[in-house]
Amino acid sequence: MARRKLIAGNWKMNMTSAEGAQLIKDIKAQFGAECPCTAVNKPDVLVCPPFTSIAAVIEAAKGTCFNVGAQNIHWEEKGAYTGEISGNMLNELGVTYVIIGHSERRQYFGETDDTVNKRTKAALKHNIKPVICVGETLKQRQAGETLAVIENQVRAALKDLTAEDMKNVTIAYEPVWAIGSGLAATNEDAQEVHAMIRGLLKKLYEGTSVADETRILYGGSMNDANAAGLLAQPDIDGGLIGGAALKPDKFAVIIKAALGK
Q1: Which CATH number covers residue 164?
Q2: Is there a domain that residue 42 lies in?
Q3: Considering 74, 136, 174, 194, which one is annotated as catalytic?
Q4: Residue 102 falls in the annotated catalytic set
């Protein structure tokens, strides 16, 4: 079945409020009168700025087709969790998506499969669409463990989620060794993992349309040069973009690739 592409920009710890608002204007300017919002087969476009810039970016994105998301969510409503942010807080800001389990959160801040699952449930509780990240390290890839690692991460992240929940879930495969390195999986390697994830969804949600409807993004150094080839793969439904999302011309090229241009 045809799944609408999703091109998501993860701004990470970049962009002040003023810079983020300007970036939205600069991305929109790349399209002129041919705004992707008006295309018949338009992709969904998502930007995820730092918490401090969310309000300004939402304001700047008014009147566009850009969705605005957050980069994390805590599983509790409130409490002594210094540096965290709750679903209620994100609801008040007006975000529609949230990135969960990014490899940098796992590597630097102790994110685990269990906390990814808890954050995912919190997002769904607050009607925020989770973009769940999974991926293997270079050591795991070289050991031939890629598919096993990804399967374990997906199973853990989706624990106790229903087929109804999955209507709002996106999965992003982001090989850890490719993030920020300038390296990327080949089109064939990326497709292999995406196909495995979709096959796993068929097993987990047998008898439902979950596997056919769930969007699976590629998130390992997708850029303006390789986006078209990756997005042409049958099980790659978009990208979770890092560095290229901060450059209006490059991000626009990726969006246009999702449009088939």
Answers
A1: 3.20.20.70
A2: no
A3: 174
A4: yes
